[in-house]
Design a protein that fits this description.
The protein is an alpha+beta fold. Helix 9 links the parallel strand 17 and strand 18.
C-alpha cells in the first residue's frame, strides 16, 4: 500500500494576525490573533475574526485575550488555545499524524515558549514540528533567495515588533528587534486623541484611523480625513471629531526615526562583504507597516540604498513557510535539491 502524501502546515503566529497554510489547500486561515473564553467553564467560544469582533464589547462572562503582545507571548494559555482552535478546524485532521508543521513566531519569543508551542502541536497529533523566526520566512516569502551566499536585509514592520535581519546561506546572520510597530502606533493615536481632543477611544478605532490616514508623504502629496467617535472626557457623552493625515504624519515621524536608528545599528554590525551585497541588492520591507505611503522613500533617503516593498507584505511569512516545509528548514536540504 502506497504511503500517504505528507500534509504540510505552515503557521505565521503574528502579534496581530495568525495565518495558516496547508499544502494542496493554500492559506486557509488569515484572521486576528484573538481568542474568546467563557469565564465560568474556561472553554474557547470564538477565535480569530469572531473573537476580534468582541473586543471592547464583552460582559463579565466572556474574556477576550490577545496571546501575543509586542512580539512576545503574554498569555501562554491563550496562545495554546488559539493554536488548538486552528488545529481542530483543519479539514484533514485525521491526516495530522502524517504531517509536518512549521510555526513561525517573532524573534522575541523565548525558547521555553517555542518548546511549549512545539509540544502543543505534537499533542494535537502533528507528526513533526519546526519552530522558525518570522524574519527568515518573511524574507523567503518576499522573493529573496536566502540560501545563496549573497547577503540580504529585511525590515519587517509588524504588529508587535519591528524586526531587522541580515540573512545569508540559509539563515539569519544577525537581527535586532524593537517593540515599535503597528500596535505602538495605535497606542500613540489613542494618547494623542485623548490629550489633544479630550476624547477617549479604543485601540480598534485608532487602528482604523491609522489605516485610513497614516502617511509619511507630505501634505501636498497625500491628504485624507477620518471621523473618530468616542467618549468626551468632560461631559462623558459620545462625541465625534475629524482627524487628518497631517496630524497622523506628525505622530509617525518619531516612530520611523526610531525604526531608522534600528536599521542603522544592524547595518553598522553587518560584515563588510554582506554589507556590499546589501548595497547592490537593496533592502526589502514587509509587514503591515510597509503599506504606509512614503515608507520606501523614507528609508531610501535615510540609507541611500534602494528599497523595495514586498509584493505581498501581509502574507510574506506564511508564503515563506512553503519553502521551509519543502526543505524542512535546512540549508543542506535546499542545497541538495538545487544540485
Amino acid at each position: 500500500m502506497a504511503n500517504k502524501k505528507m500534509l504540510n502546515i505552515g503557521i505565521d503566529l503574528g502579534t496581530t494576525n495568525i495565518l495558516v497554510y496547508v499544502s494542496g489547500q493554500g492559506v486557509i486561515f488569515n484572521e486576528p490573533s484573538v481568542v474568546a473564553f467563557d469565564v465560568d467553564s474556561g472553554e474557547v467560544i470564538a477565535g480569530g475574526q469572531a473573537a476580534y469582533n468582541m473586543v471592547g464589547k464583552t460582559h463579565g462572562k466572556i474574556r477576550v485575550a490577545r496571546p501575543l503582545r509586542e512580539g512576545v507571548i503574554s498569555d501562554m494559555e491563550a496562545a495554546k488555545a488559539l493554536l488548538k482552535y486552528i488545529f481542530l478546524s483543519l479539514k484533514n485532521r485525521k491526516d495530522l499524524r502524517n504531517s509536518y508543521c512549521v510555526i513561525c513566531c517573532p524573534s522575541e519569543v523565548t525558547h521555553i515558549e517555542r518548546d511549549a508551542m512545539r509540544d502543543l502541536a505534537l499533542q494535537m497529533g502533528i507528526g513533526e514540528v519546526l519552530i522558525e523566526e518570522e524574519i527568515k520566512a518573511g524574507a523567503i516569502g518576499s522573493g529573496i533567495d536566502i540560501y545563496s551566499p549573497e547577503g540580504s536585509m529585511v525590515i519587517d514592520i509588524g504588529g508587535g515588533t519591528t524586526d531587522v535581519g541580515v540573512l545569508s546561506l540559509g539563515d539569519v546572520v544577525l537581527s535586532q528587534s524593537i517593540r515599535v510597530a503597528g500596535n505602538y502606533i495605535d497606542q500613540i493615536i489613542v494618547g494623542y486623541i485623548h490629550k489633544s481632543h479630550n476624547l477617549v477611544i479604543g485601540q480598534k478605532t485608532a487602528e482604523k484611523a491609522k489605516i485610513e490616514t497614516a502617511t509619511l508623504l507630505d501634505h501636498v502629496e497625500f491628504n485624507s480625513e477620518f471621523r473618530i467617535s468616542g467618549r468626551d472626557l468632560v461631559t462623558g457623552l459620545p462625541r465625534a471629531i475629524v482627524i487628518t493625515s497631517e496630524e497622523v504624519r506628525e505622530l509617525l515621524q518619531p516612530v520611523f526615526e526610531e525604526i531608522g536608528r534600528l536599521v542603522m545599528s544592524v547595518l553598522e554590525q553587518t560584515p563588510p562583504e554582506l554589507a556590499a551585497d546589501i548595497v547592490d541588492n537593496g533592502i526589502v520591507v514587509n509587514g503591515g507597516g510597509s503599506l504606509i505611503p512614503g515608507v520606501k522613500d523614507y528609508f531610501e533617503e535615510l540609507l541611500n540604498i534602494s528599497v523595495n516593498i514586498a509584493d505581498k507584505p501581509l502574507t510574506a511569512v506564511v508564503e515563506g513557510t512553503k519553502v521551509l516545509l519543502q526543505n524542512k528548514g535546512s540549508y543542506l536540504n535546499n542545497k541538495h535539491s538545487r544540485e
